[in-house]
Every structure is written in structure tokens, then in C-alpha cells.
Write a structure and sequence with these properties.
The protein has about 290 residues and is α+β, with helices and mostly antiparallel strands. It has two domains: about 130 residues, Immunoglobulin-like (Sandwich), CATH 2.60.40; about 110 residues, Immunoglobulins (Immunoglobulin-like, Sandwich). About 20% of the residues lie in helices and about 50% in strands. It is built from three helices and 18 strands. The strands form four sheets. Strands 2-9-8-4-6 form a five-stranded mixed beta sheet, with helices on one face. Strands 11-18-17-13-15 form a five-stranded mixed beta sheet. It is rod-shaped and about 145 Å long. The chain starts with a helix and ends with a helix.
């Protein structure tokens, strides 16, 4: 009985050593970061690291999972090799395309490796499961613009709105917006403001409360710095110039940018009140004369 258990254990150990005899030694992708909708070439190097030959080697990329947004492109996701001698290495090339709607991030792809080997007069099957990863990413594209409907009047407190649009294919996160000092502008709100995440094809706004000096220029340049990370935690810093157009109160009224004081209704009301008072006074006098 003990001999049978010992023999069984030996067979299991031998089988496990055969299973581990095929190893992925290197994986490369071109490009190293693939853009959604772009094709990526994958090369997987596989080595027979034990002292026996294997046959019918089959390497398959499992693209069936919901979290694997790739499809074979002009080739199969499965490759075959008749034999791989002991100590030899072979590379297997795959061509995949990232689905257009793929979100940026790091994706794991299961790799199934199957092969046959001989144990005495018997042909046995070995299997190994591995994981490779592909980075889906693209260069972030942020655009800043000023809300044109805002009129900045010199000598008064103003609010201007900065719009930040993520026009790229990559999501961004941990976004900080920093406005720098400029001549003629006093910031009442914090110059550094935190926005957070902006998904691809989305935008967010940040408001700044400022006082424009009376003697300020009619065109003020404020440097704006954006600090953020992409989906792979790579840090970015971008700086642009924001141009503020300012007006005196008189100019703003002349150009129709702000409403002029509406005195006419008040004048009309005043005239009506005066007419009513005069009318009542005259009427009272007439009544007194008749009674006298």
C-alpha cells in the first residue's frame, strides 16, 4: 500500500515537472502603449527549459473575458508549433487591435500553453497558464478656454470661469488648476483649485473671483498651470496663457456689454405721483371754494 502511494506521488511530481518545463521568458509589444482603435504587435518568447522535447505546442491568447478589450487583427489568437527541442526557444507573434471604446488602463490577457510529451511509451499532455499585460493609453489633450459671456469691469469685483475640456482619448485624474499672479488683478479666491477626474470627451469648470484694478490694462495675461496624471499614473504639467479682456464701466455700457441704469420707469412713476398729488390738491381747493 505504501509503495503504491509512493509511486503515485512520484508520478505527480514527474507530471508537475513536465508541466513547468515550458516557460515564457519575454514578452514585448509594439507600440509599448496602444491607443484605442490601434493595432499592437505582441511577441511572446517561449523556452523549453527541461531535458526533453515537446510536441504539438499550442499557444493561445484568451480574449473571451469581459475585461479583455482586444480582438485578433489579420491573424489568429492561436499559434502552433510541431515541436520544441530541449533548451530551444521560439517566439510566437500575435497581432491584436484595441477596441475603439476601450478605456485607458493596464489589461491582463491570459495565455494558455498546451503541448504533448513522451513518458516511456505513453504520450502525455502538459498545460500551463500565464498572464501578459498590455497598456492602453494615449497622450492627454486638455484645452482651456474662457467663458466669453463674462464681462470684466475695471474697478469692480468680477468672476471669470475657466473651462477645461479633455479632448483626448485618455482619462485624466488628480487635476489641479493653478492661476498665477498678474499685474492689475487681485485674486479673492484661491489661485490653486482641485478639480479631480475628467473623463475623455468631458469637461469641467473652475471659477475665480477677482478684482480688476481701475488702472489695469484692457488686456491682461494670466498664466494657467494644469497638473494631473493619466490612467497609468504618469505625471503631466501643462502651462498656457489666459487672456482677460477688461473694460471701464463706461465702455461696457457703450458696447452694450452691461445693462445701462433703467431710470425711465422711475421717472414715469415719479411724474405720476406728482400729477396725482397736484390733482388731489387742486380738487381740495375747488371743494373749499364751493363750500365757502
Amino acid at each position: 500500500m505504501n509503495n503504491k502511494i509512493l509511486i503515485s506521488l512520484c508520478m505527480v511530481l514527474i507530471s508537475l515537472s513536465f508541466v513547468a518545463s515550458i516557460s515564457i521568458t519575454d514578452v514585448s509589444s509594439t507600440p509599448t502603449e496602444v491607443v484605442p482603435g490601434e493595432v499592437v504587435n505582441i511577441v511572446i518568447d517561449i523556452e523549453n527549459i527541461f531535458e526533453y522535447d515537446v510536441m504539438n505546442l499550442n499557444v493561445k491568447l484568451d480574449l473571451s473575458g469581459d475585461n479583455v478589450p482586444f480582438a485578433p487583427y489579420q491573424s489568429s489568437s492561436e499559434k502552433f508549433l510541431d515541436s520544441l527541442d530541449e533548451g530551444d526557444e521560439e517566439n510566437f507573434k500575435f497581432k491584436l487591435i484595441a477596441l475603439p471604446a476601450t478605456r485607458t488602463g493596464i489589461y491582463k490577457i491570459p495565455v494558455e500553453i498546451r503541448y504533448d510529451y513522451e513518458d516511456g511509451n505513453a504520450t502525455l499532455q502538459g498545460q500551463k497558464l500565464e498572464l501578459i499585460s498590455i497598456i492602453v493609453n494615449s497622450e492627454p489633450e486638455l484645452k482651456t478656454s474662457l467663458d466669453d459671456s463674462v464681462v470684466l469691469v475695471r474697478g469692480k469685483e468680477n468672476v471669470f470661469t475657466l473651462k477645461i475640456v479633455n479632448s483626448g482619448l485618455s482619462d485624466i485624474k488628480f487635476l489641479y488648476v493653478v492661476a498665477s499672479d498678474a499685474t492689475g488683478v487681485k485674486f479673492l479666491s484661491e489661485k490653486e483649485q482641485y478639480i479631480g477626474d475628467i473623463d475623455s470627451d468631458d469637461f469641467d469648470n473652475v471659477d475665480y473671483n477677482v478684482i480688476i484694478n481701475v488702472d489695469a490694462s484692457n488686456s491682461i495675461t494670466i498664466p494657467i498651470t494644469l497638473r494631473f496624471m493619466d490612467a497609468t499614473n504618469k505625471e503631466f504639467t501643462e502651462t498656457s496663457n489666459l487672456i482677460l479682456k477688461t473694460y471701464s464701466l463706461k465702455e461696457a455700457r457703450e458696447f452694450g456689454l452691461v445693462d445701462k441704469p433703467k431710470f425711465v420707469p422711475y421717472i414715469i412713476v415719479f411724474i405720476l405721483v406728482v400729477v396725482y398729488i397736484v390733482y388731489r390738491t387742486l380738487k381740495k381747493r375747488k371743494l373749499k371754494k364751493r363750500r365757502g
